Sequence to fold (539 residues):
Amino acid sequence: MKLKNKIIGLISAAAIITTFTSCDDEFSEIGSDVIGDVNFTDEVYSMQPLAYTTKLEKVQTSGLQGYQLGVYDDPVYGLSAYSILSQIQPTVENPTFGRNAQVTSVFLNLPYQSTVTNTSQDSDNETLTEYKLDSVYGSMPIKLSVYKSNYFLKDFQVDSEDGMVYYDNDIGQTLDRNAVEDSLLAVVGSFKPSGDEVKITVPDGDDEGTAPDISRVSPRLRVELPAEYFQQTILAKEGSAELSNANNFRNYFRGLYIKAEPKDGAGTLMYFNMSQADVTVLYSYEELDTSDTDGDGDTTDYILKDKELKFSFSNNIINEIEKTPKLTIPDGNKETGDEKVFIRGGSGAIATIELFNETVTKEDGTTVSELDFIREQQWLINEASLKLYIDQSSVNGGESEPERLYVFNLETGNVLADYVFDVDLRLVNEEEPVNSLLNHLGRISRGSDNAGDYYKINLTQHLIRVLEGLDENTPIGISVSQNVNITNRVKALPSSGAEDFRIPFTSVVAHEGTVIYGNTTAVPEEKQLKLEILYTKAR
Fold:
């Protein structure tokens, strides 16, 4: 990459003795000790980083903390359909079902993220609970189909002990779609999530002969699956090798594929914690009535009992993301930077920012790197921040704009020093992640029309550590984020064919996108991306 040249007159300054102190958990400031009676002035140094789009060919969507299901239509980037392929396994190994066991109902259950807003009592003195749905985007119906998959998901890569990694577009490419969509079990032609609590039938207690027991549970996606299918594939296999352990079962019943498709465009997108999801098989069986439960005086007859067998979603779970784009994200220019930098979640794009990419010509005619020039000045750094101005001509303002961006070291995927600094200052908001770590990762700044104007990213601690040589001046990645509190990383493959690198997990599940200005000559001066350094110097 070519370095730009900046001609700057080096101003003589009184001596500032700077003390550098550091350890793994502390961050120092430049110019912390000052000797003598010296006058100081506060000034601003503005530099232009190199900023360009890094397109992502595919992103890891296995081993995530949460998964999405549904359809989202981004006004800038287009429509995305999120489906889930997962292995399941019984919560007990080698189950016994009892005499003349018969499946009565089977349901797929995926609880929504929700919070309780109110409780009350009905006329029967039962507690009624009202909920508010979280992490549900949109309100238009979608089509859902549930398939029994016959594709075996491997745990490890071929000839390697490394765990298998699956990507958002694997189905239909490395995974045979015909095998994934092996047996159609259920179709919901028009589905919209509801915030109402759900009544479910559960096994009877000791009150045999009465109506089935009913339980009230939080709102959830609940799809009925064919009882006869599970009678033949599960209950009929009692005592077989297929049900004897988890590995055998995963090879036998290879998983479920929950496919989401648009119905009338737009759609609804839901975020699930799959650890709470299950398939519940409710069945009846005959049990010898040795205690005369039915009170007929006969302890040699059989009575019907209810029981359930649950299957958890576990081991390998994959989010498939199928896109119908409205625009083609252009490849970024790594030499000159981009006029517009595209940022989109999933296998979309991130912004790459390279700091200190210029050279400086000093008064004596010698040139140094911009980084070395700043080091020579021995400034006391008060603040360093990036302002990322939104190209409002390219995006629709309002709710479709991402509220937060996330910043990370592009070589490692790790957070920057400013993130850790905010954590140390206890600026983490677990209850409202949208208001967490605001010193480092500022929320979108909006105008009176609710359209996004800019994002402000504080890089003060990062700059200080780079100047002190504690951190390398590596490129910075900027992505959209659903929850800046989560620092887990996943793999991403850039469209350029370069080696994979790590991006934030929250970027993968972030469905929104934006477009920010770079700093080419085509960008208005007041909108160009700049790193502004507020510093104090002696005079």
User: Anything to note?
Assistant: The longest strand covers residues 302-325. The CA atoms of residues 280 and 310 lie 4 Å apart. The first helix runs from residue 177 to 180. The radius of gyration is 29 Å.
